[in-house]
């Protein structure tokens, strides 16, 4: 459920101070943060944040299209390593478990 419009977007105070300071100095350093819950506001456009995903920091460059989203949305916490190789044995089975017709053998000649 979204936050009340009258309250405004939630941004952690320590993060907002860093963003304002960076904008005053026209500095473009990477801002390291653990605050995945903070909403991206227009003042953050053009800054790069290093958002912690639980293991490492993921660099996120904020663009205009990201305003209104949370920082954590752009630093995924789970990575898919792939499915097991045993699933590749079932290639002869078509949709819904129906067997497919065997491929035609090339003609020698």
Lateral strand order in the biggest sheet: 1-2-3
Total E-strand runs:
3
Helix content: 10-25%
Spell the H/E element sequence: HEEE
Low-confidence stretches are: none
Distance between the termini: 69 Å
Q: What's the alpha carbon Rg, rounded to whole Å? A: 24 Å
Output mean pLDDT: 85
Query: Which class of secondary structure composition applies to the elements?
Result: alpha+beta
Outline type? elongated
Q: What count of helical segments does DSSP give?
A: 1
What labels describe this entry?
alpha+beta, 109 residues, 12% helix, 3-stranded mixed beta sheet, elongated
Description:
It contains 1 helix and 3 strands; from the N terminus they run αβββ. The protein has one helix spanning about 15-25, and strands spanning about 30-35, 50, 55-60. A 3-stranded mixed beta sheet has the order 1-2-3, with helices on one face. The protein is elongated and about 75 Å long.
Give a concise summary.
By secondary structure, the chain is α+β, with helices and mostly antiparallel strands. Helices cover 12% and strands 13% of the residues. The chain has one helix and three strands.
Q: SSE layout and pairings?
A:
Blueprint lengths: L12 H13 L4 E4 L14 E5 L4 E5 L48
């Amino acid at each position: 459920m979204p936050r009340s419009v009258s309250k405004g977007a939630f941004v952690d105070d320590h993060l907002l101070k860093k963003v304002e300071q960076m904008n005053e100095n026209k500095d473009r350093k990477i801002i390291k943060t653990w605050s995945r819950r903070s909403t991206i506001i227009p003042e953050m456009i053009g800054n790069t944040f290093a958002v912690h995903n639980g293991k490492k920091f993921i660099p996120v460059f904020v663009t205009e299209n990201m305003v209104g989203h949370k920082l954590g949305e752009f630093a995924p916490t789970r990575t898919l390593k792939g499915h097991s190789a045993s699933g590749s044995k079932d290639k002869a089975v078509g949709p819904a478990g129906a067997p497919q017709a065997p491929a035609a053998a090339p003609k020698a000649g």
